[in-house]
Specification:
The protein has 433 residues and is an alpha/beta fold. The radius of gyration is 34 Å and the shape is globular. It is 33% helix and 18% strand. It is built from twelve helices and 19 strands. It has a seven-stranded mixed sheet with strand order 6-7-8-5-11-14-15, covered by helices on one side. It has a four-stranded mixed sheet with strand order 9-10-12-13. A two-stranded parallel sheet has the order 1-4. This is Protein trichome birefringence-like.
Length: 433
């Protein structure tokens, strides 16, 4: 007979299960109590620094996990900024938004910088609002370094920087000069203004920041004496030498041209001499004439510029804002009285011509000398609030009260107030320099 089948053993086991279950529970509970006491004593013997180190590591891991979880929500959380530092090869400055930031203080004003034209001195001309000066462009993926005047001058030491183009390019030049000139002692700087060529010098750095007037880049009959009637303008689309002789020996060239081409669906173009006056020209569609003119410019760059000695930049088209219907303001009068940027993402108005942009991209894309774009078009499209509007001059005279009261005919929605949007253009330019 087996031990398990023994009646005595069976009876004993039954009695054990029935009578001893309470003492067993008591033993188990006591055992856990002893273990807990020992654990507590062990914890109390650890140094406080060890606990802090452990907690600190936990917080770092927790923060990292939190950052991962909220990466897709950062656009809605202004306190979290996981954008990477600016890298010209990786950062797409076009995608982003304007953020109002009162801590952003312009490096100058139209009262402190003596080099601004009245055309862009909006506050001095009576503009009552100032919020347009405190919007900061923030790309989605990266951060653009703030414009540092000292760094800019160090990069320009022993160099010539020349802005070439129209009055919008002149505004970018004046913006750049005003952002650096305040840190230069009065006896260490100079300005020489000319009809076509103006030169600002930072003597201590042996640097010059210059502007050359060439609204079409190629030669035209409006280069010296501006012809107001677009129908009477003639472009010599195969000639750039007259202007380009002033670009020789420059270390950094920054070009632009757009608005002057947009004076009609067709442009009078000429090959050869102006000697025959209005005879001998051919009317071409604007994009066709634009392509021929840019090819003439590109051929000069490729055949003349040594990329080891000279860097070439091209500022893309600056948008105009003359149709308030473009941004949904049916009762608006062009850009007059606009005080905030357009917040609709990827807003695009009729003041920027994508066909003309594609011409620039195509011509530059085939050049041998590398050209860096300062892409300002999309970011400026939003800034309907930042034009000089009625706070400007025309024909060398400030607008009269009667003219200001008629913004439909007199508001300037092409040029920008300074300080303003061109400061951001130069911020982007300096980041690429």
């Amino acid at each position: 007979m087996s031990l398990a089948s023994s009646p005595v053993v069976a009876a004993t086991m039954k009695a054990y299960r029935g009578k001893l279950h309470l003492p067993i529970i008591t033993v188990v509970v006591c055992s856990f109590a002893i273990i807990a006491l020992l654990y507590t004593e062990r914890i109390s013997s650890l140094s406080s620094s060890s606990i802090f180190k452990f907690s600190s590591c936990s917080r770092r891991r927790s923060a990292a996990k939190s950052k991962d979880k909220t990466a897709d929500q950062n656009i809605y959380n202004t306190e979290i900024d996981d954008r990477f530092d600016f890298d010209p090869e990786e950062c797409n400055v076009v995608n982003g938004k304007w953020v109002f930031n009162t801590s952003i203080k312009p490096l100058y004003s139209d009262r402190t910088c003596p080099y601004l034209d009245r055309q862009v001195s909006c506050v001095k001309n009576g503009r009552p609002d100032s919020d347009y000066r405190h919007w900061e462009w923030q790309p989605e993926d990266c951060t653009i370094p703030r414009f540092n005047p000292e760094l800019a001058l160090k990069k320009l030491r022993n160099k010539r920087l020349l802005f070439v183009g129209d009055s919008l390019q002149r505004g970018q030049w004046q913006s750049f000069v005003c952002m650096v000139e305040s840190i230069i002692p009065e006896d260490k700087k100079s300005m020489k203004r000319g009809r076509a060529h103006s030169v600002f010098k930072a003597k201590e750095y042996n640097a010059s920041i210059e502007f050359y007037w060439a609204p079409f880049l190629v030669e035209s009959n409006s280069d010296v004496h501006i012809i107001g009637d677009p129908k009477k303008r003639i472009l010599k689309v195969d000639s750039v030498a007259k202007h380009a002789k002033h670009w020789l020996g420059v270390d950094i060239l920054v070009f632009n041209t757009y608005v002057w081409w947009m004076s009609g669906l067709r442009l009078k173009t000429l090959w050869g001499s102006f000697a025959n006056g209005d005879e001998g020209y051919e009317a071409l569609d604007t994009p066709v004439a634009y392509r021929i003119g840019l090819k003439t410019w590109a051929n000069w760059i490729d055949s003349t510029v040594n990329p080891n000695h000279t860097r070439v930049f091209f500022t893309t088209m600056s948008p105009t804002h003359t149709r308030s219907i473009d941004w949904g303001n049916k009762d608006g009068l062009k850009c007059f009285n606009e005080t905030k940027p357009v917040m609709k993402k990827k807003h695009w108005g009729t003041g920027s011509d994508k066909q003309m942009m594609s011409v620039v991209a195509d011509v530059v894309g085939k050049m041998k000398v590398p050209v860096t774009f300062i892409n300002v078009t999309q970011i400026s499209e939003y800034r309907i609030d930042a034009h000089s509007s009625v706070y400007t001059e025309t024909g060398g005279k400030l607008l009269t009260e009667e003219e200001r009261a008629d913004p439909l005919h007199h508001a300037d929605c092409i040029h920008w107030c300074l300080p303003g949007v061109p400061d951001t253009w130069n911020q982007i330019f300096l980041a690429h320099l």
